[in-house]
Amino acid sequence: DGGITQSPKYLFRKEGQNVTLSCEQNLNHDAMYWYRQDPGQGLRLIYYSQIVNDFQKGDIAEGYSVSREKKESFPLTVTSAQKNPTAFYLCASSTGLAGVYIQYFGAGTRLSVL
Amino acid sequence: RKEVEQDPGPFNVPEGATVAFNCTYSNSASQSFFWYRQDCRKEPKLLMSVYSSGNEDGRFTAQLNRASQYISLLIRDSKLSDSATYLCVVTAQRSGGSYIPTFGRGTSLIVHP
User: Which of A40, A100, A105 sits opposite B44 (nearest CB)?
Assistant: First the structure.
């Protein structure tokens, strides 16, 4: 059953702690993305990767880091430099067939600060 | 001006009503357009792509107006299960050559009995 798996579903961060959100896909998609969604807001792009071993900053990359060592995996680290990390984090992947970039999303991770 | 703008609503309609949402975008070079549906505390899911010629999927009709830079979604015969937030998504090329989707804030629809 193909899809995108995010874990954990809920995560709590202590002050000064780095935490890593997992995102794995078995859709054989080249591109992967991380978004942040705050209550009543749209999705804001944190980082994206079009191919393995390459990634680009999105609109709100400060305080976050990523890696793309495998096609299937795109983990996001929320560092202690991110002062307001409480949000709903969504990972997506896409194929760029014929210029149409439909994204498929994981179920998300809700991050809260203790 | 924001890249993608939507009226956040909420649109509160009775069952069986017809409701329409609009979305405007600022980048005239935008290439592909979509409507996604997001239920409360869930991930967005693709509702339909939007084509220049307009397209229909059951009770849902999407239109694209490139000259005026807006897309629309029409829902006929609204059902209680249509209650959700509808996200407008526009894909455009960024510096570096990548095509990246940009999401609107979403329009909330509440269908009541």
Answer: A105
